[in-house]
Amino acid sequence: MVSLLLCVNYYKGCLTLSPSKAAICMTTSEGRIINRCSSVIDLKQATDRHVLEAADSNKSRYNPIDFKSSAMCNKDNKYTQRYLQLLSTSALHWPEETFPKMAAKGMVFLLLTVSLASPSSANLTKEIFYSTQPPSPPLPQSLMTGQKLPSPLPPLRTRAAESSVVSLRRKRQAEDEEEEESRAALDLSALVTTVAKKELKDCVLGIATDQGFRDSAVLEDLLRLPNLRQVVEVAAPEDFYGLLWEASKCRGYIILLQEPSPLLDFVAASEDPWDFGGRYVLVGASKEQLEEVTRSPKGVKTEHILGLIRSAKTHDWKVYMNLLFWGPGVEVVNRWHRGAFTSASDLFPDKVSDLKGATIKIVTFGFAPHVVNREEGLQKYGRDVELIQTLAQVLNFSASFREPPRGELWGAKLENGSWTGLVGALARNEGQLGVANIFLSDNNNRRLVQDFTQPYDADMSCFMARSAPPLPRWQSLALPFTFEVWMAVLLGVLVLSPVLLWLARGSEVSGEEVTGLKTLSSAGLYYWGVLLRVSQARVPVRPSTQIFVAFLWICSVILTVGYSSNLTAFLTVSRTPSGVETFSQLYASRQEVIGMGTFFKISMISSRNKYLNGLADRYASYSDFGQALLPVKEGKGVFIESRKYLEYLINTQFTNRGSSSMRIIKECFTPYSVAVALQLHSPLKDRLNLVLSRLVESGLVRQWFLETLRRTKTLQRRATPTEGAEEVAAEEQGALGVIALSLEHVEGIFLILLFGLVFSCVIFACEILLRRK
Fewer CB in a 10 Å sphere around the end CB: N or C, the chain? Predict the structure, then answer.
């Protein structure tokens, strides 16, 4: 064992280590100095390790001498030589009355008892003796000469001295702790003030503090800042209601709590107020408590949360930030060391513009043409799928699609206030985004549980009804003219033929007229030939008859040109009879209104149109598209949905060779904007709005819709090669501007020929019968 005795001046009630140099001296068991202060160390940086290393070095040099003690004293002090001689002797062998008297002379002795067997892991015992009395006069010459002392006496260890040692040690420890706490408080105040000046310069400050920080330097320095501010003292979770959680500009919140439990209880309640766009600085919470805040219903949607935590090892301050979508928990973004940050990193970085490959859950379901599920796999395509993939590329995230339970679709509000389907998944934080041609609406107060981006498309609610069977093709010959026109033409034949006969006979007064106009049958046939633009071999010779026939030619040209022009269209396009086209006609038809969920029923009830209100009473809700379309195919009801979906449905499922078995009623209602559904208070909203506005301006949304229609048609043709080939041929002919007329198109012509043949046969039979009589 070796005893190291440290002596320092005691001045004005405190320990002083100035000047800063000290010496390490070793003695033998006889009390003579064998190394007179050869090892010099800096007391400002001196630690127990330095003393041990110096002692161990001297031991190795003088081994195997049995060292009993050494002294480390201020070598520049005028009392050093006098005390050095005294301290060169073993303190453990002084007389009982000697050591306390030495301590009473205004000196402080630090007795270090060390085992030098293993200096790196030595057990160190510190004992402090001190007094406020001035130093004693010079010591006797016998002690100054290094003369050998009398035989050693037992060491001085009275109970009073031991009690004083313990008391002084505790007092010194308390003073050290108090000094350390004061230094830490000043560092914290500088840190918080720097954060406020640097990151919250233009923000309104909301400061929440408990009793532990009420009189602290941190709060005093914050109140000196020029920011508009509000200070609230917090003792319970409900005290946070006193903060103003909304502001017209940037808002920062500095929360100073020695006991963070009120904050933890407050953030755990999702219904309490919270500024999700604010910048938060938390002081007093541990790392585990800070992570609990970031995982809470409020913290998980807050982009900017900082936590200031002091390191137990280095006593520096670590600045933690929440990661939001970047990962779980928190991470160190900067450090505060010796009154400054160790790096220039941003304390409140943008965590949304680049999500760094984070997985974002997308809630959706098959709803063509917006979301189309491929039967052979999990691959999806459609307008909304293309939209999500584009957003994923711009914001750098990975989209993970999930579907609500079968049949729930967009969701419905239950009696207990909760929601099912897509809306319910977002309300329960089971997904971050939702797409499926979602209308931006507040039906059933759905905006209390979810939010929307700005619109990226528009649509409206329409009814789809079964089309009546097309009219027979042979009727196409009569369709170019209305019934009234045909009656006028027939009346002209019946009236103008006798007029032509009368003019022909009356003109004989002034001269002979052609014989072909002197009978009623020949005059009628002549007029019919003019209407059909048939060249006449003989023309009238009298002026009056010629003028009349000239006007007949003009009339016939106009009629025949108009008829032939319309006839081409009616021969190539099938015509369906007119059906229900308005809300009033639909209401009068007594048909059932069929829809998915209750969204459209609520829309009709809230409408000011009385017929729509009446149709809401006949509304039937379905959860399966296939079952919902069965009554519509049978003509027992109409199906209500968005117009774009109905167009897609008719084009892909109810159209064959250009003929559709379903149609959209002309009168629609309630135009809607289409948007992306979000969690309530989602931090993604602002960035998504910016990207969506650029996509709409570029015209990509409309392009994705048209591509989905073409892709679906292509897949259907591959599934049915025969029908697909026929449709491709028909489309190619349409692209060339020509359509080959089939027998179906011209069947009316052959029917007229057949009618003429039968009629002529009947007349022929009548003539034979009349001749026999």
Answer: C
The full DSSP string for 411-428 is: --B-TTS-B-HHHHHHHT
For 305-328, write each residue's pLDDT tens digit.
999 999 888 888 999 999 999 988
User: What's the gap between Cα 424 and its chain centre?
Assistant: 16
For residue 498, whether the previous peptide bond is cis, meaning omega lies within 30 degrees of 0, is no
**Helix %, strand %, coil % for the chain, to 5?**
45, 20, 35
pLDDT greater at residue 683 or residue 598:
683
Give 370's strand partners: none
Q: Running DSSP on this structure, what letter comes out for residue 514? A: P
Where does 639-699 have alpha helices with state H? Answer: 643-653, 685-698
Angstrom distance (rounded) from CA 514 to CA 611: 67
The sign of the torsion formed by the CA atoms of 584, 588, 594, 600 equals positive
Burial tier of 324 (Cβ tally within 10 Å: 0-12, 13-18, 19+): buried
Report the alpha-carbon distance of residue 87 to residue 99 in Å, rounded: 10
The 3-state DSSP class for residue 711 equals helix
The residue written with tokens 């167009």 in the block is 647
Q: Per-residue confidence at 124, pLDDT binned at 50, 70, 90? A: very low
For 345-471, list the strands marked E by DSSP.
358-363, 372-373, 380-381, 397-402, 433-434, 450-452, 457-466
Burial label, 558 (beta-carbon count in 10 A; 0-12, 13-18, 19+):
exposed
Per the DSSP assignment, residues forming a β-bridge with 640 are 463
- Work out the average pLDDT over 464-475: 79
Full 3-state SS string of 563-574 = HHHHHHHHHHCC
User: Most distant CA pair in the chain: distance in Å?
Assistant: 186
Contacts of 11 (CB under 8 A, 6+ apart): none
Burial tier of 274 (Cβ tally within 10 Å: 0-12, 13-18, 19+): buried
Length of the chain: 773
Q: How many CB atoms lie within 10 A of CB 737?
A: 6
Contact 2, 62 (CB under 8 A): no
Whether the model clears a pTM of 0.85, i.e. scores above it, the answer is no
From the number of C-beta atoms within 10 Å of its C-beta (0-12, 13-18, 19+), residue 434 rates as buried
Q: Do the Cβ atoms of 317 and 191 come closer than 8 Å?
A: yes
Among 292, 346, 384, smallest CA distance to 645 is for 384
Per-residue model confidence (pLDDT) at position 186: 87
Question: Using CA atoms, how far apart are residues 734 and 520, in angstroms rounded to an integer?
Answer: 48
Alpha carbon separation from 301 to 255, 275, 294, 398, 512 (Å, rounded): 18, 10, 8, 19, 106
3-state SS of 302-345 is: CCEEEEEEECCCCCCEEEEEECCCCCCCEEEEEEEECCEECCCC
Question: Tokens 């006979």 identify what position?
Answer: 505
**CA pair distance 734, 738, nearest whole angstrom:** 6
Task: Match 């408990």 to its residue by tokens.
Answer: 210
691-698 — which CB contacts under 8 Å span 24+ positions? 691/390, 691/391, 691/394, 691/395, 692/453, 692/454, 692/456, 693/454, 695/387, 695/390, 695/456, 696/456, 696/457
